[in-house]
User: What shape does this take?
Amino acid sequence: MPHFLITNDDGVDAPGLLALAQEMRKLGDVTVIAPDRNWSASGHVKTLHRPIRTKKAVLADGTGALAIDGAPADCVALAVLGVVETPIDLVVSGINPSPNLSYDMLYSGTVSAAAEAVICGIPGIAVSTDHPLNPRADRDYTTAAVTARRIAERAIANGLHAGLLLNVNVPHLPLDELKGWRITRQGIRRYEDELLINHDPQGNPYYWIGGKFPTGEPADGTDIGAVQGGYVSIMPLHLDLTDYKKQAAFMQDGWEWGPEN
Assistant: This one.
């Protein structure tokens, strides 16, 4: 029976984490380790210069979990390095309540946890859903949780390998209204950030990065296009960031990279 590590970047009390853990229990054994607070948009953080503390937690369904005062990637690292004694077969991170599309992946703590799994030699899947922006709207994680389980089932059936890294984005639709799955590539994200400036009681300025929710170009074959079209986006990732075309160009076009005389 496979053993899954479930984590996230929204904190151990997040409803998306609970929905994911409950669904993955249908496939095998589940261990939940998550941050004790929200680490959204934290990127790939690894804690090296202070101790990481853990405490037992209880999810809303009464099952146990471990909360840590570190980042999402720390959750995976601690588990692999010995906090969890049973070997982990697959790390599933999520469910994030907003999408992680295109350049969002560079900011995403959800994706960073799955990437840390791959660095540790374990396959990883990051799962996000495209919920309404209204914070008071009902947020149903059922479709995303069932989708995560089905993808994990297929990954297991096809043989888990250490380099498997998937970024999954699920439209906020009832399960029977999904149009299907698409294997996608990275689209182009549009950010409309604004710098908000205010002053504390001593007159010192402080800053807040705000602005509108990012948009994107819904081109065919991209993650953005798939989600906007009602399809689950499944994007295979790898951690090699080398631009091989530019590497070849630099080697062929006479660029001089040696030390100056």
Remarks:
- Helices lie at 15-24, 72-83, 104-107, 109-119, 142-157, 223-228, 244-252.
- DSSP finds seven helices and eleven strands in the chain.
- Residues 142-157 form the longest helix (16 residues).
